[in-house]
Amino acid sequence: MRRLQTFYVTAAVLSIVLGIVGCNLLDSDSDHPTLPSSSSSQLTPVGAGQVANFYVGKGVSDFYGVYIAGTSFVVNVPKPGTFLLTYYTKSGFGLSTTSIEYMKEKGVPEEVLQKLTTLVNQQFATEEEYLAALTSLIGAEQLLLYEDLILRYSYANVGGPYFLVTKVKKNSLLYIGLMPGDQVLNAAIDEGDATALAGTSPDAQDFGDVTVYFRPGFMGSWIDYFVINPSIPQVVLISNYAIVISTNVIALELPQGVTVKTQHYTKPKTKK
Known about the structure:
Helix content is 27%, strand content 30%. By secondary structure, the protein is of the alpha+beta class.
C-alpha cells in the first residue's frame, strides 16, 4: 500500500511540475516565439518559431532521460560536460512513402499497407480526424492491431534539425519549449568541448548550473560553439518518436519529494 501511495505522489508531483512549466512556456512567448537565425551555414536550424522558451531545473536521475510533456521537451543530463542536443519535430498527421517503408520493416501486413497508400500525402490536423480516416479505410479490427505503429510513423511535417549547445556543471534538467502541436520525432546528445569562441560569445546565457552557448535564435551556427568528441558514443534519446530504453538511456522518473526549480530564459539583446 505504501508503494502505491508513493507512486501516486510521484505522479502528482510530475504532473504539477510539468503543467506549471508548460503553462509558463505558453504564457511567456507563445505569441512571439524565438526565430532561428539566418546563416550561410548548412547546419543552421530551419523552421521559424521552433523554440519558444528555455528553462533549467535540478536533475532527477543518474541516467540520460527524456520526457515529452505537451508543450515542453524535458531532457535529464546526468553529469558535467559540454553537450550538443540535436532534435527533429513532427506536426500534424499523415503518411509518406517513407512511412509505409518503416511500417513494412516493422511487420505490418502487405494488404494493410496497400490500403494505407491511398492516404499518402494527405494531411489531417487532429489525431481524431486521422483515426476516423484509418478506421474507414482498414477497419476497426485492423486499426486496433496496428494503431501504435501507424501513429508512430504518421506525421505531416518535419521540422529541424534543431541544435542546443550547453555546458552542464552538474546533473540538470533542460526544458525546451515546443510550438503548439509539435512533437519530438528524434533526439540525440553528443558530448564534446566548447570552443574559445563559445566562451566569449555575447549569445551565451548563464543559468547557474547550465550555460547555453547556442540555440535557435542565436547568431552563427552550433559548430562555432562546440566540437564533437568522436571517441564518445552518441546517446540516442528518441528514435522515430519511440523513447529508447537501454542501460544508458531511461524514461525520466521523478523520485519521491523532488522539487524542480525553473529559471526563465532571457533573450539576448539585439545588436544594432
